TrEMBL record:
This is TVP38/TMEM64 family membrane protein. Residues 64-180 form the VTT domain. It is a multi-pass membrane protein. Belongs to the TVP38/TMEM64 family. GO terms for cellular component: plasma membrane. The chain crosses the membrane at residues 7-29, 49-72, 84-105, 125-145, 157-180, 192-210. It is found in: Cell membrane. It holds the Pfam family VTT_dom. The keyword Lyase does not apply.
């Protein structure tokens, strides 16, 4: 459920080229307002339920991407309603993953996540709550892996639910807003500034995380060798 360094770099390169092509006018992401409005009218109450269900599945089943669902939610239902549907779906998925992990137990989760099973979830209840909240604000921390790891930690269920909801609201709004702006054809200066700030702050954190991951992998053989010699 965790992404390797190569995967992260490939995805980052693809996204970077896509944004560059969009900015240069090589292709257009203009959405057909009439088609989207017609879909919303046909879907009725099933439309929001579909968004919530897709977001829930995207969290519980890691290979399903959640960002396109969030963008589609904003395009179909606007900034605020789109944010609500995305947040409800992500929260539901996180709670389901948490309960699944708590029911399966640490052994099964460790086999699924490997050395990511702890995810830094050590300390008091307040420290655990803060760790979950902070992880929801960082795009390079696996949302689903953190949910499963929290399920086998000492963190109380209500604290996990509260920290997750507080942490996912900013990203949910940003993605829904981008989708809504793209649909309305108003993706302009403010959106590019927000995107630029996200890249400026996120890329250094991503590189730091990759560097620490590489360092930990280098240290692991040394620890294994020392343990073998000691035995």
């Amino acid at each position: 459920m965790s992404l390797g360094k190569g995967t992260v770099l490939v995805v980052g390169a693809i996204l970077g080229l896509g944004l560059l092509g969009w900015a240069a006018g090589w292709w257009s992401f203009d959405l057909d307002r009439a088609a989207v409005e017609a879909w919303v009218a046909r879907a009725g109450p099933w439309g929001p339920l579909a968004i919530v269900a897709l977001m829930t599945a995207a969290v519980v089943a890691s290979p399903i991407p959640s960002a396109p669902v969030a963008l589609a939610s904003g395009a179909a239902f606007g900034h605020y309603a789109g944010t609500v549907y995305v947040a409800v779906g992500a929260e539901t998925g996180a709670l389901v993953a948490f309960l699944i992990a708590r029911g399966l137990g640490r052994g099964t989760v460790e086999r699924l996540l490997g050395d990511k099973a702890d995810h830094g979830l050590l300390g008091s209840q307040n420290a655990l709550t803060l760790t979950v909240f902070a992880s929801r604000l960082l795009p390079f921390v696996s949302f689903d892996a953190m949910s499963y790891a929290a399920g086998v930690s000492r963190l109380q269920f209500w604290r996990f639910a509260l920290a997750t909801m507080a942490g996912i609201l900013p990203a949910s709004f940003v993605l829904a807003h981008f989708g809504s702006a793209a649909m309305a054809g108003t993706f302009g200066g403010a959106e590019w500034i927000a995107l630029g700030l996200g890249l400026v702050t996120g890329l250094p954190l991503l590189l730091l995380a990759l560097r620490r991951g590489a360092a930990s992998r280098k240290d692991s053989p040394r620890k294994d060798t020392a343990a073998a010699e000691g035995s």
